[in-house]
Amino acid sequence: MPSSKEKRAQRHQSQPKQNIAKANTRAKVTEKVAGSGYREVQHIGGRKFYTPLSNDPNLTFGGSSSGGVGSTGGGSSISTNQHENLYGLASDNHTQYVLVDGTRAFGGNWTNAGRTVADLGIITTVDINGGTIDGVTIGSGTINGDLTWSSDQTGVSSLTLANSKNIDLTTGNITFTPTANDTLIISSTTHGASEIATTDASGSNASLTLDVDGDIILDPHTGDVKLLKAGSWYGAKLIPNDDNTFTIHSGDGADEGTLTLRAEGGSISMASYDASGPTETTRFRFNVDSTPEIDVTGNFTIDGSADITLDSVGQTYIKTNGNLVFQADTSGHIYLHNHNIALYNDYGITMKKSVYHFHSGKADFEENHSVLAYYFTPSSTNDYEAYPS
Amino acid sequence: MGVRNTSYQVEQVKRYIKIPDRRLISGLLHVSVVNHDANDAQDDFVQQCYDKRASVSPTIKYSNSFTKSGESTFADGNQGFLDRGRDGMKHSFADYDCFLFYVAGGMSLSGGIQTYGSPISGVSGGSNLVSNSFATNEGGGTYRWAEAPNDLLTPADISANWFLGTGSGYDVDPIGDFCSHFVKYHLISRINNASGHGQLNFAQGTPMFYKTKPIQRRTYTVGGSAIDARDANYADTSTHTAENILSHGMYDTKDTLGNDLGRPSYAQHSSGASSGNFVKIAETSAGSDGQWVSDGAGGLTYATSNEGNTYFSPVDGIKIYGSHRFQTVGRQRNDGRKIYSITGNGAYHEQNFWSLVIDVGLRGNNSSGSSSEGSSDKAIMRNQVNVSFQPFGETGDFDVSDTMQS
C-alpha cells in the first residue's frame, strides 16, 4: 500500500539531515539514508549528484550517472528518491519526450541508426522514403509508386505474399531488371490482354524458361496458340479444337506455310496411346538421318481421295517382309519378284516366279486365264544314267 | 491317233495340277525336255554311244530295242548306234524333245459312289460286324478285326458303312464311283531331232528305240520349172503323208530369198576336209528303202547316208488325264469273305477337287542290266524338263505339286 502524501513529505525532509557530511568535491561519498538504504554522492561543478545503491540484484539502472531520481540545480535539495512521489508527475511539461499514449508526435526527424525497433505495432499511415524494408509482412494496401529493387543489384531481396493474397495492378507492369536495361516485364492492358516480355539490351539471350513440376497448360478459350517470330505472325499456330483433336497449323491464310519437323540425325515418331493401359505405341517413326525411312507399326494404308504418285529420281522398290517384289528402274523396266535376267534383258515387265506366273480372272466360273510353269530335273545320279565314258 | 510302245523302258515322272470339281478349262500345254547336266557341252548321246561303244553301261544298252541282240556293233555283240560323224561337235543340245498340246476338259466328282447290297454295319456300330464275324467284341465299346486281332476298330471303322463283297467268294470290291475325268487333248506338234532313225525299219522288224506317234505331215517342195526359178517361194502341190515318226519339224537351211544359210546357221565340215559319216541335219529324206545294211566293217549302217536327224529324243511319251483320290478299304473274315467301305479307316474319296496329271514318260534305263526286259529306275541321261500350262476357263484355282494333292 503506497505511503500517504504526508509521510512521503516527512521522509523527504528528514533524510538529508541525518547523514550529510562535508562533501568532498569530485570524490564519491557513500551515505546511508534512513529507511531507504545507501547512496553515492558526488560533487561536480558545485552541484551534488546522487546515485542510489540497491541490494536488490534484479534492479538495474540505465547509464551510470543517473537513476530514477530527480536532481536539483545548485542549492536545491532532493525531496524524494521515489519517482512516483515526484511532484507534478502528471504534468506534461517535458516536451522533448514523446508520450506513450501517442498524443505528441516527434518534434523533428528521428534517427535511430543501427537500432532495432522490435515491434511498431500497427502503422496506419506511413511514408517510407528510403532505406530498407526487410522481413515485413504486409496485410493489404496500395503501392502508389514503383516497387523497385535496389538499383545497384547488390541486394538479394524477396517479396512474399501470405496465402491467398494477391498483387493487384491496374495499368502497371511487373518488371524484372536483373541487369541494367535487361528486363522481364509482365504487363496487362485493356481487356486483360497480357504479355510476358524479356529484353536483352545488348543481345538475344533473354530466354524465357518455364520450369515446372507438373503440367504447362495453355488454355485459349476461343482462339489458337499462335507462334510469332520477332513480333510478326506468319501463320504458325497450335489449334486446340472443341473435341479431342488438335491441329498444328502453318500458313496465315494469305500465304501457304511450310511445317517442318526437325531432328538431328535421329527419328521423329508418332505414337498411339491407350489410356486404359496406359500404353504408348509408336506407330510411325520417321528416320531423318542420311537414309530416311518410315517405320510403321500395324497395318499401314495410304488412302488417297485422288491420285497417289510415287516419284523417284532413282529406282522405285517395293518389298514384302524384306524381300523385293517390285522394282521399276530408271529406264522404265518393271521387275517383279526380284527378277534379274543375267543376259539380254530389255523387257517392259519381267517377273521371277516359280510355278504360278500369272492369273487374270473375273470370278469363279468366269473368264479365268492363268499361266503355270514348272521345271524339274533329276536331283542326283541315282535318278539318271551318266554319259558313256 | 495312237501309240505303239516299242520302247521297253520308261522312267515315269508325274506332276499334278489341283483343280476344283467341275470346272471346264482348256489351254495350251508345253513340255520341253533336253538332255544336259548343268548345260554341259558334250557330244550328243547317239554319237557318244558309238564313240564309247565298248564302255556303254549295260543299264543303257539294254534299255531299249536299239540294243536288241543279233545286230551287233557293240563289243559285247549287241546292236548299238552307228557313227554319225559328229564327234567333237558338242551337239548334246540337239537331244531335245518338245511338245505342244491343246488340253481341254475337266472332271466331275459329284456323282458319288455306287454300292451293291445293304451295309452290314453303320450307325449300329461294331455289333453288326461282330455278329457277322468280321470283328470281336472286347467289351467297353472296343472291337478288334477278326483278320488282324492286333488291330482295333477306329471310330471311323465303327461308324462306317461296310458292304459285302461280290462274286462267288464275296471278295470283290462292290463299290463303284461315278466320278470321271473328261480331259482330252491333241498333240499339236512335237519337235525333236530324232526322226531320222530307221523310219521304215518295221520292214526289218527292228523299230529301234523310236516311238511311233503318228503325225500328218505335209511337205512342200520347190518345183523345178521355169516359174519356180523366178519365185523362190513357189512350191509344188504338197504331198501328204502320215508318218510314224518323231517329228522333225520345219528346218530351214535357206532364207526367204533362197540363199543358203550356211555356216552361220548349221554345222558342216570345212571345205576339203573329210566329212566322214557326217550328214547335215538338213538332210531329212530317208534312203530308198530305209534298211540297215552292212557298213563293211562288221557293223550295220543306213542304206543311204542322207539322213541327219539321228539325235536322241529323251521322251518316250506323254499322257494327260484327270484323277482324284479314291481308295476303299477291305476287311475279311476267316472264310475269305470281305467287306468294303469308302469311309472306314484308311479309305478316302475326294470330291472337292481333282488333279490334272502331266505324266511324262522319259526314256528309262533297264535296271536289270541284262538283255531281258526289266523295270526302269533312272532316266537315260540327265534332263531338264520345263512345263508350261496356260489354262483358260472356269477357274483360276490351281495348285501344282510333285505328288497328288490330298
Largest interface, C-beta closer than 8 angstroms, per-chain residues: A-B, 27 and 41 residues
Net shape of chain A = rod-shaped
Judged by helices, strands and strand pairing, the structural class of chain A is: mainly beta
Q: Biggest sheet of chain B: strands, sense, closure?
A: 4 strands, antiparallel
Radius of gyration of chain B: 29 Å
Q: What is the molecular shape of chain B?
A: elongated
Number of domains of chain A: 5
Averaged pLDDT of chain B: 79
Helix content of chain A: under 10%
Can you give the helix content of chain B as a percent range? under 10%
What are the defining features of this structure?
heterodimer; A: 389 residues; mainly beta; 5 domains; 4-stranded mixed beta sheet; 3-stranded antiparallel beta sheet; 1 helix; 29% strand; rod-shaped; B: 406 residues; 4-stranded antiparallel beta sheet; elongated; disordered N terminus
Could you characterize what this model shows?
The complex is a heterodimer of chains A (389) and B (406). With 389 residues, chain A is mainly β. Chain A has five domains: 109 residues, no CATH class; 30 residues, no CATH class; 39 residues, no CATH class; 40 residues, no CATH class; 76 residues, no CATH class. In chain A, 4% of the residues lie in helices and 29% in strands. Chain A has one helix and 18 strands. Chain A has a four-stranded mixed β-sheet, with no helix packed on it. A three-stranded antiparallel β-sheet of chain A has the order 1-2-3, with helices on one face. In chain A, strand 5 and strand 6 form a beta hairpin. Chain A is rod-shaped, with a radius of gyration of 51 Å. The relative contact order of chain A is 0.03. Chain B has a domain of 281 residues. Chain B is mainly beta and 406 residues long. In chain B, the strands form nine sheets. Chain B has a four-stranded antiparallel β-sheet, with no helix packed on it. The radius of gyration of chain B is 29 Å and the shape is elongated. Chains A and B meet through strand 17 and strand 18 of A and strand 1, helix 1 and strand 22 of B. Strand 18 of chain A pairs antiparallel with strand 22 of chain B.
